[in-house]
Design goal:
225 residues; mainly alpha; two-stranded antiparallel ribbon; 9 helices
């Protein structure tokens, strides 16, 4: 029974790959709001499978399967690969630079996920944590000029290798209650934006941008290790 419950957690984690697959199909059809909804569901799965795995001691019960490796595979699909396609196919980048920018996202994202020092001892991320799903979301939300979109991709890709810190909202202890509260508000606002076909109006957009600035600034307040 314990092994069956433990394997169920692995199935839950692996279901994120299916949501990434659904998201890619929707992206190919240019159904962007539905794509982000699928990536959002995958994000929820990513938020609950870790605590479940630790509670059920999945690593000890089923040592054959590596939950860490499975999580990285699914995260790369949801956080990097599908968003890279969305960024390249969005139409917000110059046509000659769209595919190279998408390739840049996949390359830097793959390097980041293979970095053994991607996290600090207090659970901050070192460098931009390859959350290209969020970057793609803001690209579609803000619809910047093409050169600004290219600059955004280039800057975030470069920040992958810069030793500045980014907050993990669920695992960094400092201001955790505030971070979780803001993440909850962000999720509600993001869902509202998706429900309005990524055109939610001034106040929702402002709220989403303000929370993003907060999390960026919160990471900067930590001194490099």
């Amino acid at each position: 029974m314990n092994k069956a419950r433990a394997f169920t957690v692995h199935l839950l984690t692996a279901s994120g790959a299916a949501f990434a697959f659904f998201a890619l199909i929707l992206a190919a059809k240019r159904e962007w709001s539905a794509m982000f909804l699928m990536l959002g569901i995958a994000l929820v799965v990513d938020g609950i499978d870790g605590p479940l795995a630790r509670r059920l001691k999945v690593a000890e019960t089923l040592p054959r399967w590596s939950g860490d490796t499975l999580d990285l595979v699914v995260d790369f699909l949801c956080y990097v690969f599908v968003p890279a396609y969305a960024i390249a196919a969005s139409g917000y980048l110059p046509s000659g630079l769209a595919i190279p920018c998408g390739a840049l996202v996949t390359i830097t994202g793959a390097l980041y996920f293979s970095d053994r020092n991607m996290k600090t001892g207090d659970n901050h991320f070192r460098g931009f944590p390859a959350v290209w799903n969020a970057a793609a979301f803001y690209l579609f939300l803000l619809q910047p000029a093409p050169w600004i979109a290219v600059a955004m991709v280039a800057i975030l890709a470069a920040l992958t290798f810069v030793p500045i810190h980014f907050v993990h909202p669920l695992r960094v202890r400092r201001l955790r209650a505030l971070n979780i509260a803001l993440l909850t508000v962000w999720s509600v606002l993001a869902l509202a934006a998706v429900g309005r076909d990524l055109d939610p109006g001034f106040w929702v957009t402002t709220g989403l941008c303000t929370i993003a600035v907060y999390f960026f600034a919160a990471g900067l307040r930590r001194n490099p290790a």
